[in-house]
Design goal:
It is a single chain. By secondary structure, the protein is an alpha/beta fold. 48% of the residues lie in helices and 17% in strands. Strands 1, 2, 3, 4, 5, 6, 7, 8, 9 and 10 form a ten-stranded mixed beta sheet that branches. Helix 8 (192-205) packs across helix 9 and helix 9 crosses helix 15 (353-367). The longest helix has 40 residues, at 3-42.
């Protein structure tokens, strides 16, 4: 065959290869378009009603990417956990995400929801200052244990009920002022953290027993009202007292009720923090359980991912939340020279939602006099 005669078959082969390549890319593009179309058809926007303490976590870009891969995006509205349980428009959301188990139970009762998922948790703690540790230890209020600090709630409640002032504590040269020894909390009538504080001190006042009847709730609610009224103005969100603690220091906030998660989120987001800041762990303490109540199938799909994905758990630990495996959280804390007890043993249960509401009602009545 001459070179001229060979040109025809060669061109045919080239054309055939071109057609095959074109068909391949055409089929691949069609398949990709079909996948995109299917994803678009199944993509959902999950409406979440959540407590403010999870705001940064739910807005995390890494979490958004995980959700996007699962065909989900979020529309988040903030509300206090106690408010969530009584919102008249609750059923317009796909999932309710309060900070406390009692609120979650109330939401389930109100809506008839059966699908409840516990995602992350954090213990209630007290943010304080290292210069105060010697006087707190001398008064028998604080004890060092494995590098962290436990605060004896029984002794603390006794001191607060007596109206003890800081200058009355023996050997107090670090903070010898006339202010009453009190734990700064949020408004118990509006905030979950305030409610958890009331649950904790009511347990102490009830002889280390959970308040479980109306008579005890009425008596103890009135008795504990002074721990709130003597604080003066109280914020409605746990962010407020913590911001004062960070910005104004020991003079404004010697003892502040916080979530451990708040303290850790703040510290983990910075290379350095004030070295005098210290976290005290109440003994006993109470856990704030971040519970998802699925109100729709879309909400259940989101809740399932939040409670089973190791990637989601990893992101949550960067914001200070605890889960089943806290190895990463403890490593992050250690890198910031923060001592976090790996196991929180002395934990009590809160009262039922209705009993806690009765306690809050008695405090409210006393504060309104």
């Amino acid at each position: 065959m001459t070179p001229r005669n060979a040109v025809g078959p060669a061109l045919a082969v080239v054309l055939l290869i071109g057609v095959v390549i074109a068909l391949y890319f055409s089929v691949r593009e069609k398949r990709a378009a079909d996948v995109t179309a299917r994803r678009s058809a199944t993509r959902i926007t999950v409406r979440v009603l959540s407590g403010s303490e999870k705001e940064k976590f739910l807005a995390d870009p890494g979490l958004a990417k995980i959700l996007d891969e699962e065909g989900m995006s979020l529309s988040v509205e903030k509300a206090g956990s106690r408010e969530i349980a009584t919102r008249p428009d609750l059923k317009t959301f796909d999932v309710a995400y309060p900070a406390g188990a009692p609120a979650a139970v109330k939401i389930a009762q109100t809506t008839g929801a059966k699908r409840i998922f516990t995602s992350f948790y954090t213990p209630i703690a007290v943010a304080s200052w290292k210069p105060l540790l010697p006087v707190l230890e001398q008064s028998g209020l604080v004890q060092a244990k494995d590098g962290s600090y436990a605060i004896d709630m029984d002794k603390l409640v006794q001191l607060m009920e007596k109206g003890t002032r800081w200058k009355d504590l023996p050997g107090n040269t670090a903070y010898s002022v006339g202010k009453s020894v009190l734990v700064t909390s949020t408004d118990v009538r509006r905030s979950n953290s305030g409610g958890m504080y009331l649950a904790l001190v009511s347990y102490i006042a009830n002889g280390n027993n959970v308040v479980d009847n109306d008579a005890a709730a009425d008596t103890i609610g009135e008795r504990m009202a002074g721990l709130f009224s003597r604080q003066g103005f109280q914020e409605s969100s746990s962010a407020g007292p913590f911001e004062d603690y960070v910005a104004m220091g020991i003079g404004k906030a010697p003892l502040v009720l916080v979530y451990e998660q708040q303290f850790l989120e703040y510290a983990l987001a910075r290379q350095t923090v004030n070295p005098d800041m210290v976290l005290l762990y109440p003994a006993p303490t109470i856990l704030s359980k971040h519970t998802l109540v699925a109100l729709t199938d879309n909400g259940a799909r989101f809740a399932q991912l939040m409670t089973t994905s190791e990637k989601v758990s990893s992101i949550a630990q960067h914001y200070g939340f605890r889960s089943q495996d806290n190895t990463q959280l403890f490593s992050l804390a250690q890198a910031r020279n923060l001592v976090v007890p790996h196991t929180v043993v002395d934990v009590i249960d809160p009262p039922s939602f209705d009993m806690l509401e009765r306690l809050i009602g008695r405090v409210d009545a006393a504060l309104s006099k």
